[in-house]
Design a protein that fits this description.
This protein is an alpha+beta fold. The chain has 2 domains: 363 residues, 3-Layer(aba) Sandwich (Alkaline Phosphatase, subunit A); 112 residues, no CATH class. Helix content is 23%, strand content 20%. The two termini are 26 Å apart. The C terminus is likely disordered.
Length: 507
C-alpha cells in the first residue's frame, strides 16, 4: 500500500496536521488535527496501478483499461498516455481552472519505462513534476524532475526518498505563485515493500504484531479456490515473516508523519492552512494473515479494498465521521467540484462527495453501492517451487501459498445502505464462483452465504453487477438494489446471464 497525500486549494493551499491511527490493521502514519472528517473509504481495484489510475481519472478499471501493474496491462503505457492522461483531474485543473499543480513521488508502477517514453515523459496536467521511476524504492532510485533524470544513492541525509519528497514539497510551497490557486499531490511509497525505515526509526515497535482478528490464520473453507489452497495453520516462518513486515511498514510511516508535520507547519507559517482542503488516502489495502494468506493485496476482502480517507478543510466540521461509502473514483470529481469545475462535463464514473463533507447529504440520498473489479495475474509456466499447482498462479510464498492466479478475476457489488451492508462477488472462472457476505453480522467475512441466501436477492445482485460492469459515467451512479429508487426489471438481464471483464481463464 502506498500513501497518497493530496493538498488542494481553491485559492487554497494544502496539507494536514498530526494524528496517528490504525485502520484495517495498517498503521497509517497520519497525524491529523481534530479539524477534519473521517470517511468510509474503498478502492475500485485492490492493486496499485489500476487503483492509482482510478484516482487520477475518476473511472472504473473497465473504463480506463489499466488492469494490472505491467506495461502490457496498460500501466503507464503509451495508450494510457494518449487516451487517459489528458482527461485526468489534474489536467482539467490546470487547463480549465487555472491551477498550478505539483506532483512528487510514485506515479504509476511502469512510469519511466523506456518503451513508454522513459522519465522524459511528463504526464499532462503537472506544472512541477517529480516522478519516481518505476515502483517503490527508498534508496538508489531515479527521479524525473520535470523530465530530466536525477539519480539518488544510498546516503540517508541526501537520498532517503520520503525526506527528499518532503523537501521538494516545502520548496514548492515556498516558491509557488501566491496569485494562483494550487493543487499538490505527494505520494510517498511508504509503507510499500521493501519497507526500509529511516535510521532513527529502525528499532521502533519491537513488540508489535499484525492484528489477530477472527479471520487471522483461518482456513477459507467456503471461498474461491485460491483462498482455499492457503496452508492452514500457517507455518511459524510465515507468521514471523508477516509480523516482521508489519513492524517495518509502521516504521516507514514515521517518516510520512514527519513529512505531514513539516508541510503543515510551513502552511501555517504562511497563513494558508485554514483555507485549505486536505485529503489523505491510499491506493489499496493489505492483508497480513487473513484466511492464512501471508502478505499481499489483490483479494476482494475488506482488508484489501478498504483504505483510510481523512479530509479537513473549509466548512468541514471537526471530529466527524461518516458511514456513507466513498470510493477512490470519487476523489477526482470531488476535487474538481471544490475548484468550481462542472463535473458533468467529464466522463468520470465517480461522483462528488463535497456535499457529504458539508453534512448536507444523508444516508437516504447518497449512493448505496459501487463496483470493485480485479483481473487476476498468473504465469503461463508452473512455479518451479510449486509444480503441483501447475501453470496459472503467481506471487507464491515458500509454502506454495500463491496470492494470485489468472482466474482470480472477479467483480463485486459492495453495498453500504441503512438497510444492508453486504458484498456480492462473482468470479470469472469455470465455476462462476460466487461469494456473498452480510457485513452487519459477519464483518470479518467468515461465512459465505452464496448457497443459503434467498434466490431473489442473488438475481437482483447479479443484475446490478452486470449493470455496473458495463456502466460509464452517469450510468455508474444509478440507484442500487437497496436504494428506494431502484426497480428490478428481469427483462434487462443479459441473455448470457453476466457480462465479463475478460474471457474465462484457467489457473
Amino acid at each position: 500500500m502506498n500513501g497518497v497525500c493530496e493538498g488542494f486549494s481553491r485559492e487554497m493551499n494544502g496539507v494536514y496536521e498530526g494524528f496517528s491511527r490504525e485502520m484495517n490493521g495498517v498503521y497509517e502514519g497520519f497525524r491529523v488535527s481534530a479539524a477534519g472528517r473521517e470517511m468510509n473509504g474503498f478502492v475500485a481495484s485492490p492493486l496499485c496501478c489500476p487503483s492509482r489510475a482510478s484516482i487520477l481519472t475518476g473511472k472504473y478499471p473497465h473504463n480506463h483499461h489499466v488492469i494490472n501493474n505491467t506495461l502490457e496491462g496498460n500501466c503507464s503505457s503509451t495508450a494510457w498516455q494518449k487516451t487517459q492522461e489528458p482527461k485526468t483531474f489534474p489536467a482539467l485543473l490546470q487547463a480549465y481552472a487555472g491551477y498550478q499543480t505539483f506532483y512528487a513521488g510514485k506515479y504509476l508502477n511502469q512510469y519511466g519505462n523506456p518503451d513508454a517514453g522513459g522519465v522524459e515523459h511528463v504526464p499532462l496536467g503537472w506544472d512541477y513534476w517529480v516522478g519516481l521511476e518505476r515502483n517503490s524504492r527508498y534508496y538508489n532510485y531515479t527521479l524525473s524532475v520535470n523530465g530530466k533524470p536525477k539519480k539518488h544513492g544510498g546516503n540517508y541525509s541526501e537520498d532517503y526518498l520520503t525526506d527528499v519528497l518532503t523537501n521538494m514539497s516545502l520548496d514548492f510551497l515556498q516558491y509557488k505563485s501566491n496569485y494562483r490557486p494550487f493543487f499538490m499531490m505527494v505520494s510517498p511509497p511508504a509503507p510499500h515493500a521493501p519497507w526500509t525505515a529511516a535510521p532513527q526509526y529502525q528499532d521502533r515497535f519491537k513488540d508489535l504484531k499484525a492484528p489477530r482478528d477472527p479471520n487471522f490464520n483461518v482456513h477459507g473453507k467456503d471461498k474461491h479456490w485460491l483462498i482455499r489452497q492457503a496452508k492452514t495453520p500457517m507455518t511459524n516462518s510465515s507468521i514471523q515473516l508477516l509480523d516482521d513486515a508489519y513492524r517495518k511498514r509502521w516504521r516507514t510511516l514515521l517518516s510520512v508523519d514527519d513529512l505531514v508535520e513539516k508541510v503543515v507547519k510551513r502552511l501555517e507559517v504562511r497563513g494558508e492552512l485554514e483555507n485549505t482542503y486536505i485529503i489523505f488516502t491510499s491506493d489499496n489495502g493489505y492483508h497480513t494473515g487473513q484466511f492464512s494468506l501471508p502478505l499481499d493485496k489483490r483479494q476482494l476482502y475488506e482488508s484489501d479494498i478498504r483504505v483510510p480517507l481523512l479530509i479537513r478543510g473549509p466548512n468541514i466540521k471537526p471530529n466527524q465521521t461518516t458511514g456513507l461509502a466513498v470510493q477512490n473514483v470519487d476523489l477526482g470529481p470531488t476535487i474538481l467540484d471544490m475548484a468550481g469545475y462542472n463535473v458533468n462535463k467529464t466522463a468520470m464514473d465517480g461522483m462528488s462527495f463535497l456535499s457529504v463533507l458539508a453534512g448536507s447529504v444523508n444516508s437516504t440520498t447518497w449512493r448505496t453501492d459501487f463496483l470493485v473489479e480485479y483481473e487476476g495475474e498468473g504465469s503461463n509456466v508452473a512455479d518451479p517451487a510449486c509444480p503441483l499447482l501447475g501453470p496459472g498462479v503467481s506471487e507464491c510464498f515458500p509454502d506454495c501459498v500463491c496470492e494470485d492466479s489468472f482466474n482470480n478475476t472477479y467483480a463485486c457489488v459492495r453495498t453500504v445502505a441503512p438497510s444492508a451492508d453486504i458484498q456480492y462477488c462473482e468470479f470469472d472462472d469455470n465455476e462462476v464462483f460466487v461469494e456473498v457476505y452480510n457485513m452487519t453480522v459477519d464483518p470479518y467475512q467468515l461465512s459465505n452465504l452464496a448457497k443459503t441466501i434467498d434466490q431473489e436477492v442473488l438475481e437482483k445482485m447479479n443484475h446490478r453487477l452486470m449493470m455496473l460492469q458495463s456502466c460509464s459515467g452517469q450510468s455508474c451512479r444509478t440507484p442500487g438494489v437497496y436504494d428506494a429508487r431502484y426497480t428490478f426489471d428481469p427483462q434487462l438481464m443479459f441473455s448470457n446471464r453476466r457480462q465479463r471483464i475478460s474471457g474465462p481463464r484457467r489457473a
